[in-house]
Design goal:
The structure holds 2 protein chains of 2 kinds.
Chain A: H1 2-7, H2 9-28, H3 31-63, H4 71-115, H5 120-124, H6 128-170, H7 172-179, H8 181-219, H9 221-226, H10 230-282, H11 288-329, E1 351-358, E2 367-374, E3 379-383, H12 390-397, E4 405-410, E5 413-414, H13 420-424, E6 427-430, E7 439-440, H14 441-446, H15 454-463, H16 467-472, E8 480-481, H17 490-504, E9 508-512, H18 520-534, E10 538-542, E11 554-559, E12 562-567, H19 569-575, H20 578-594
Chain B: H1 2-5, H2 11-43, H3 48-96, H4 100-105, H5 108-133, H6 135-150, H7 152-199, H8 201-206, H9 210-263, H10 268-286, H11 288-310, H12 321-324, E1 332-339, E2 349-356, E3 361-366, H13 372-378, E4 387-392, E5 395-396, H14 402-407, E6 409-412, E7 421-422, H15 423-427, H16 436-445, H17 449-454, E8 462-463, H18 472-484, E9 490-494, H19 502-512, E10 518-522, H20 526-529, E11 534-539, E12 542-547, H21 549-555, H22 557-571
Helix pairs in contact in B: 2-3, 3-5, 5-7, 5-11, 6-7, 6-10, 7-9, 7-11, 9-10, 9-11, 16-18, 21-22
The chains are: A alpha/beta, B alpha/beta.
Chain lengths: 595, 573
């Protein structure tokens, strides 16, 4: 769809007007202030004309006649006019900046809150840095344009209309002659903006890609350094940077043509008026005085046109930015909660899958025919080789993804009837990749329950066996974690994630390789805490160490996207199936160990 | 300034652009004269011939201006785009040379803003400077000179006003430069929250903290809005003030002009001329608000770029090429190594001593946070030890070139990190010119062949941020394959098999053996450690026990505990 949009310039132009209208709708919210700005533009333009007019008159009536009578009063009046003029200029800018920044602010906010409504699928397919570019570089384009363009467009249109009126009044014929350049101007503008519009878009797109590349390569520094691939990433960076340069170069070149072209046409129109006017004057159709005044106005007429065309071009760069923002805002949201869906205030924790099938890609499936029942308070372990579909099952329980067919029920209610957020409010997670925010340790644990007291936070940390290492940190719970939680070890991150989940006090608990990076002694210590935590809650556990899961009430053995065995540890052992062989494999190792 | 020195290669295109701009400016100044001629000699005299003749000259001249303008566009765009490209290149190369303590200094989001947004500001400024910015000062200076020739005394009046106004402009510019620097910092902040939300989206969803995050974002967004509005408003004060004072000068000229006319010192025409020139200068001045804004933003951005460019990487590359060639054995020796992370107060490694002989497998065991991963990072010199030294084949690694050192090492970090690109491209990180057979072999040994072959696009499958959903274990195995394809002398596996089931893990470790490299492996599992030649047991940054499985089982209390913890769990059924 996106490609189609880019392919056809016809559609593009249509969308440019649409985008401008849409940007305008943000501005229009501030109608009153905008009217005030407009009024100030009118006022400043009027006063700007009144000043020279008074000066002209003063020279005629006082200086030329050497009549100093009343000159003082006139000059005081003039000073007042100029004071008002400056004041109105200042006010229009002051207000306009407010409106522009408010607009940009809303766009950013809207983009951001939209992100939280998009399905996880959306993020799985995009680079973070590319999305970040939309908030910074693209919106920046809009911001720069709005700060100045609106006022400029206002005043240009104003001057244009004013001069056109005077010109028509002076000589409709010569006005017509002046207007002959308008089609030329229009053609020229169209030729240029057809190119700049496309190039601006390309530039922003490449800039976004570059941004994405930078983000990824800085996040992946460890690998780049360890594999000494600096040169490789630099050369890749240069290719992407070159793309930005190319699009930027041509956009600037074409944009640079505009004032030059306008100046040229301006002169053309002047010569035309002079020539045609002279011809008419010879025939006595116009007076020479008219031509003289008229040329003066004709010159004034092209200036705002010139400004307008420049502004139009700037507007296109804003459009290129805004389009990329609107692209996201218009993305299809996480299948929005169905109309009939309700918020749930309590959740017992019964979870049932009925013949659930799901695929990440359109073709093929990742899991199929999944059916199981987890009673409230039960612990369910998911076992199976990597890539069997365990994490996918978790993704479905958390409703990061929706099943392609089949049903998931929570407390016997179809998940489609429950609002996602209210459901997740009753869940807590310790995910495979523990994510920590920049902030203090305390804040990071408190993320589990925002209204938790300091004591509760510390108690949760204690239960997760994180207390001792936190206390050893220079500022204890108030130690600032730097970005991506670097500075503490992977295992410690997991301990903090567990503390966070403990604090959340959920009905459904999900532990996805929650202890994989934690040493076994610490694991034993927190096992007790986890057991306590799991008590009275439905919990889903993924772990590769069989010993951490054998106490589960129910074990689901998953292979190639299907549940192939189901039952308790003992039952499954008796079955002598897949689980049995997995277990044997580990046991044998343990026996070897014991020797 | 390093940034400005990057302008040097573009001196000639810049000079050409400026020359073309001057041509344009000349034509522009000439045009009013031609217009006057058309009116005075042509129309006023009813001489159509003259109108057409001068009209033709004017058109010719404006064609010249058009040509100059268009050519200027090319040169200005060329210089500014290449300037931008070069700054980006320099910045990015610098960032690639950063040590991890440098990275702690600059949040990722800030580096990104600097490389894109700040560079754009500079590039834009250069382009505009080469096209129009010079025009305003030239017009002002020209206006002053002409006014002075008309009547020194009258012109003096407004000339006296100009220096204070220029000072005022400079003052505003200084102030707004500082303000725009804050704006960019606020932009960093917005970028940071945005980045955190994107990378942590699953967690945020899982805890349904969308609203909380929106509030957090709103805070930084609001800051940005207020700061931007404030900075812009400060720059916008300039013009109204400027205009007001210039206009007051006109009034003064009128007033004193009137007196002088009375005294017969000056003619009316002269007063009119001076008033006209004042008006022109005023007009040129009004361009300054825009110039101030663009330039103060550019200066703010320049200082941010400069900051990065002058940052010294504290990891210094060695230059011992000769000995590097001899790293064929793969013996690793730690000699009294202590290490603490930059800007922290406690040692995470204390007096570490051990030696891994060529081809040996050493397992590192220890509690969470005991320093295992930190120890690993010293070997490819991601960090340098605070005390002591690390030697490979008897050569102090701090004397080696990064490239030579790291070529020998296959490092598989704890978090499997793959880049946007195909599986093939990701594997090529290990060896650029790897043949298909080599890839298959590495993939097979990493126990992921079956998965790769089952993907619809096989080796061409896209991975990373834009790629397919691979499970944690699959990613881990691909990153192991990436290390194996290098055929390294030294293999570092940082708990890289944690997400693998035991069967796969055992197969993988078996497959690695023929590679015959010195292998250091961090693990939680006794079953894995037991296979190693030596086990190092770490506690609080110290090696508290070293030996093989049986040795440790014999004398190390901690090892016994760990052993019990795993055995106990297995047997509790």
């Amino acid at each position: 769809m996106k490609q189609q949009k880019e392919a056809s310039t016809e559609v593009d132009r249509g969308s440019a007007t649409k985008t401008i209208k849409r940007i305008w709708s943000y501005l229009a919210v501030h109608k009153r202030l905008l009217n005030a700005v407009l009024f100030m533009v009118l006022l400043s333009s009027g006063l700007g004309l009144l000043g020279p007019f008074i000066i002209g008159r003063t020279i005629d009536t006082h200086l030329s006649t050497r009549d100093a009578n009343g000159l003082g009063i006139i000059l005081v009046g003039l000073a007042l006019v100029y004071l008002l003029h400056s004041l109105s200029l200042w006010l229009q800018n002051y207000w306009m900046i407010g409106i522009a920044q408010e607009t940009v602010f809303s766009m950013r906010t809207e983009l951001f809150s939209k992100l939280h409504k998009l399905p996880i699928r959306f993020f799985d397919k995009r680079q973070s840095g590319e999305l970040m570019s939309r908030v910074t570089n693209d919106i920046e384009n809009v911001s720069t344009t709005l700060n100045s363009s609106v006022i400029q467009i206002f005043s240009s249109v104003l001057t244009l209309v004013g001069t056109l009126a005077v010109m028509l009044w002076l000589s409709p014929l010569l006005t017509l002659v002046t207007m002959t350049i308008v089609p030329l101007m229009f053609l020229g503008m169209k030729w240029i903006t057809n190119r700049t519009g496309r190039l601006y878009k390309e530039q922003q797109k490449h800039l976004g890609e570059l941004n994405g590349f930078i983000e990824e390569s800085i996040s992946g520094q460890r690998i780049i350094k360890a594999f000494s691939q600096e040169e490789k990433v630099i050369s890749e960076f240069l290719i992407k940077s070159e793309n930005v340069k190319k699009a930027g170069y041509w956009a600037q070149v074409y944009a640079g043509f505009i004032p030059k072209l306008m100046n040229m046409l301006n002169n053309l129109s002047f010569t035309l008026v002079a020539a045609v006017g002279g011809y008419f004057a010879l025939r006595g159709m116009v007076t020479i005085g008219t031509i003289v005044i008229f040329t003066e106005y004709a010159r004034q007429f092209t200036r705002p046109l010139n400004d307008l065309s420049n502004q139009f071009n700037t507007l296109l760069s804003a459009v290129a930015g805004a389009d990329r923002v609107f692209d996201i805002i218009d993305e299809v949201e996480e299948t929005s909660d169905e109309k009939q869906s309700k918020a749930i205030s309590t959740l017992e924790g019964k979870v049932e899958f009925r013949d659930v099938t799901f695929a990440y890609e359109k073709d093929g499936y990742t899991v199929r025919g999944l059916s199981f029942l987890a009673r409230p308070g039960e612990s369910v372990a998911l076992v199976g080789p990597t890539g069997a579909g365990k994490s996918t099952i978790i993704n479905l329980i958390t409703r990061f993804y929706e099943p392609a067919s089949g049903k998931i029920l929570f407390d016997d209610q179809d998940s489609m009837n429950i609002q996602r957020e209210s459901l997740r409010n009753h869940m807590a997670f310790v995910l495979q990749e523990s994510f920590l925010f920049q902030g203090t340790i305390r804040e990071n644990i408190r993320y589990g329950r925002l209204d938790a007291t300091d004591e509760e936070v510390e108690k949760a940390a204690n239960m997760a066996n994180a207390y001792s290492f936190i206390k050893r940190m220079p500022k204890g719970f108030d130690t600032e974690l730097s970005q991506d939680g670097s500075g503490i070890s992977q295992g410690q991150k997991q301990l903090l994630s567990i503390a966070r989940a403990i604090l959340a006090d959920p009905s459904i608990l999900i532990l996805d390789e929650a202890t994989s990076s934690i040493d076994t002694i610490t694991e034993i210590k927190i096992q007790e805490a986890l057991r306590l935590l799991m008590k009275g809650r439905t919990s889903f556990i993924i772990a590769h160490r069989l010993n951490t899961i054998q106490q589960a009430d129910q074990i689901l053995v998953v292979d190639s996207g299907q549940i192939i065995e189901k039952g308790s540890h003992d039952e499954l052992l008796k079955k002598r199936g897949f689980y049995h062989s997995l277990y044997q494999n580990q046991l044998r190792k343990d026996h070897v160990k014991a020797q | 300034m390093k940034v400005l020195s990057l302008l040097k290669p573009y001196r000639i295109p810049m000079l050409i652009a400026i020359f073309l701009m001057l041509v344009e400016l000349g034509v522009e100044l000439w045009q009013p004269l031609l217009m006057a001629q058309i009116i005075d000699d042509g129309i006023a005299q009813n001489d159509l011939q003259t109108v057409l003749r001068i009209g033709a000259i004017m058109l010719g001249v404006s064609l010249l201006a058009l040509g100059a303008g268009i050519a200027n566009s090319f040169f200005a765009a060329y210089a500014s785009q290449n300037f931008g490209f070069d700054i980006r290149k320099n910045l990015y190369e610098k960032v690639q040379a950063f040590s991890f303590s440098n990275f702690n200094q600059y949040p990722t989001s800030s580096l990104i803003t600097r490389i894109t947004n700040d560079v754009n500001q500079l590039q834009m400024t250069l382009f505009m400077s080469l096209r129009i910015a010079l025009r305003a000062p030239l017009l002002v200076i020209g206006g002053i000179i002409i006014a002075l020739t008309v009547n020194v005394k009258l012109a003096l009046g407004f000339i006296l006003v100009i220096p204070p106004l220029v000072f005022f402009l400079i003052w505003i510019m200084k102030k707004s430069t500082r303000l725009f620097k804050i704006v960019q910092e606020k932009l960093d902040k917005v970028n940071m929250v945005m980045r955190e939300n994107l990378t942590g989206i699953r967690l945020i969803r899982a805890f349904s903290r969308g609203k909380y995050e929106s509030k957090r974002f709103k805070q930084s967004n609001q800051d940005l809005r207020e700061r931007t509005a404030f900075a812009l408003r400060v720059t916008e004060i300039a013009i109204p003030v400027l205009l007001f004072f210039m206009n007051m000068t006109v009034i003064a000229v009128l007033w004193f002009g009137n007196i002088d006319i009375h005294n017969g010192n000056v003619t009316v025409g002269e007063v009119v001329a001076v008033v006209n020139y004042t008006a022109r200068i005023t007009q040129a001045f009004s361009m300054f608000s825009w110039i101030i804004m663009v330039f103060s933003r550019a200066i703010a951005s320049t200082s941010r770029i400069e900051e990065v460019l002058v940052t010294e990487s504290d990891l210094q590359e060695g230059h011992n090429k000769l000995e590097a060639a001899n790293l064929a054995g793969g013996k690793i020796e730690f000699k009294h190594v202590s290490f603490r992370y930059p800007d922290t107060e406690t040692d995470v490694l204390k007096d570490i001593n051990f030696c891994a002989s060529p081809g040996e497998t050493v397992a590192l065991l220890g509690a969470t946070g005991s320093g295992k991963s930190s120890l690993f990072q010293l070997i490819p010199r991601l960090y340098d030890p605070t005390k002591g030294k690390v030697e490979i084949d008897g050569v102090d690694i701090s004397t080696l070139e990064f490239d030579h050192l790291r070529k020998q090492i296959g490092y598989v970090p704890q978090e499997a990190l793959l880049f946007t690109g195909t599986i093939k491209e990701n594997l090529a990180w290990g060896k650029e010119d790897a043949s298909h057979e080599e890839m298959m072999k590495a993939v097979e040994d990493a126990q992921i062949l079956e998965t790769v072959e089952s993907l619809p696009h096989k080796y061409e499958t896209m991975l990373g941020q834009k790629g397919v959903n691979l499970s944690g274990g699959q990613k881990q195995r691909l990153s192991i394959a990436r290390a194996l394809i290098k055929r390294p002398r030294i293999l570092l596996l940082d708990d890289s098999t944690s997400a693998l089931d035991l069967k796969t893990e055992a197969k993988l470790l078996d497959a690695i053996k023929p590679y015959n490299c010195t292998t250091l492996i961090i693990t939680q599992k006794i079953s894995t450690a037991k296979e190693a030649d030596t086990i190092l047991l770490l506690e609080d940054g110290e090696i508290i026990a070293a030996g093989n499985h049986n040795d440790l089982l014999g004398y190390s209390k901690l090892y016994q505990n760990i052993y019990q913890s795993q055995l106990g769990m297995a047997e509790s059924s």
